# Entry
Amino acid sequence: MILKCVGLSLDRKSAPAQIMALQEPLCDTRTGFKNNLGRPAKTDLEKRLDFVDGIERKRSTMLLFVGAMSGFFGFGFAGFLGLWGIFNGHLQNNYVGEPLQSGINYYPQTVSEMVYDPASPAGKCFFAFCMIGAICIMISNYPFHLRNAYVGDDDVYFGVSVLSYRAMMPPIGMMLVACITTTPAAKADFRDKVCVMIHTFGAVIMIGGHALFELHNLRSPKAHTRKRERTVRYICLISCVVAMLGFEICGGLAGFLPKKGVCCADVWRAPNITDIRAAYHAGHPGIAIQDALGYEGNKGELVNSASGVILVIKILEYWCEVFAGLFMIAGHIAIWYYSPERSLDLLESIPDHDEDVKVDDD
# Structure
């Protein structure tokens, strides 16, 4: 027995039972209709493949741009709101409710310390924008879709290609940085220190990973990059690396110089019962509650804020980290801007599934 249905001819004896069971759905006896099992017409196959490939590439550029801009807003808004509270708010009180003797509000040493409280305005903005940015950059899969970021998959380390590392490591690092915040060292217990180490690991694979893979990309002859593009991306890369080195150097100096008597570092002390009562009687029950929590957890509370040389170093360290993140994001924006896929011209209409299929106007 032969089953005939619009280009399909199967012998019941040789055809699998699963195919023969679809005899009725395969045939459409309505006049003017054909069913090709979802396969595009042969004459349109190349057109449809180009269209689908173009959509994937355009989608990748869109997600990369949205992810990069979200990361920019995350660092930008967090820094702005945090610094606004420092320089435009009232003078902070110390652990017993008295104004800080330095006359300067506490200045965080890093962006992570600035946003360590997820309930603060800066913490909310940083978490939201960085998570959106990380997710968009990850699902853009841009190293596989953009010609100026594609270097082939021959370079493999531990069974994984460099393209896969680049597509996954920086956004995962950004997620870790956004989700696992740090705590000031004087207030950190063992568990907090473990979180700080995980946070630091995330920052390393986010910024350091981006710098390493970007250098590999720019030095690879397989990537389709132009001279001006390479110049811009090298500037972003070198600036990011310099900012990260400055961050590490300032961090080391901020911990080393106070031990040599350089003035003046932040002063922290674990409160006692007398301090809790003093803060309460001074009309600061909120500070008294913080002191009580610090007393029970043996965690330090702020006595006086940094000033002088140490304050300058802390400010430099903070802004070095900010600029390292911004230049990393600028590198992603440069990849988006110079990618040929950004200006890819798609067809003005989606190719029909099958031009022979009629669609009722009803």
